[in-house]
């Protein structure tokens, strides 16, 4: 009975559904030799474009569940860098389910506009964890400009939008902190610091 019980537990928890997790998976690097390093060079990476409060490394780490321990990764492990999403604009039109009447940031198509943000390099399992954190949003495949290169990335857009909400100051502060930290343009920082 004991072995049967152990096998059941191992089977149950060896492939845990993402929604059961309290933090994003941590990818550990095995450094057993040259062959492992060469093979891991092609690890699948997904670029995540953050335009909201997760532009801030501190908030990104907290959202991923990594903030409580020094042994967990920091945002710098995911090579954050500034990027621009052309022909989209920023709005606050997704109602915060935890604070009714408050708005969360969103993006929408608008020719000639530009949203600045932060590009993180993640593993697919970490993106799957973000899916569980970004409630009220859905994934959107986009192309962003990073330096002079076009990069395919994933971001999140609101599933349902509604006008008339005001952004939470904590979200605006996190966005502005992230914009400063990753040196987004002065014009964009001024926009985030101004009235919304």
Description:
With about 200 residues, the protein is of the alpha+beta class. The chain contains six helices and six strands. The strands form two sheets. Strands 1, 2, 3 and 6 form a four-stranded mixed β-sheet that branches. It has a two-stranded antiparallel sheet with strand order 4-5. α5 packs antiparallel against α6. The model is unreliable at about 15-20, about 30 and about 35-40 (pLDDT under 50).
Set out the fold topology:
Blueprint: H1 2-14, H2 34-40, E1 46-50, H3 57-63, E2 81-95, E3 102-122, H4 124-133, E4 137-146, E5 149-158, E6 166-167, H5 169-181, H6 186-193
Parallel strand pairs: 3-6
Antiparallel strand pairs: 1-3, 2-3, 4-5
Label this structure with key terms.
alpha+beta, two-stranded antiparallel sheet, single chain, 30% helix, 6 helices, 4-stranded mixed beta sheet
């Amino acid at each position: 009975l004991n072995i049967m019980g152990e096998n059941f537990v191992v089977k149950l928890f060896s492939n845990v559904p993402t929604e059961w997790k309290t933090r994003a998976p941590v990818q550990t690097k095995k450094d057993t030799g040259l062959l492992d390093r060469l093979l891991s060079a092609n690890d699948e990476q997904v670029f995540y474009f953050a335009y909201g409060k997760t532009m801030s490394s501190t908030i990104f780490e907290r959202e991923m569940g990594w903030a409580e321990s020094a042994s967990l990764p920091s945002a710098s492990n995911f090579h954050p860098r500034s990027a621009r999403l052309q022909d989209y604009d920023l709005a606050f039109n997704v109602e915060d389910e935890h604070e009714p009447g408050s708005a969360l940031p969103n993006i929408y198509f608008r020719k000639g506009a530009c949203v600045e943000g932060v590009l993180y390099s993640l593993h697919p399992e970490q993106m799957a964890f973000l899916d569980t954190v970004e409630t009220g949003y859905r994934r959107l495949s986009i192309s962003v400009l990073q330096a002079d290169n076009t990069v395919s990335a994933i971001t999140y857009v609101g599933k349902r939008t509604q006008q008339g909400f005001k952004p939470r100051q904590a979200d605006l502060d996190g966005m502005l902190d992230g914009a400063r930290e990753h040196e987004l343009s002065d014009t964009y920082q001024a926009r985030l610091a101004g009235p919304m």
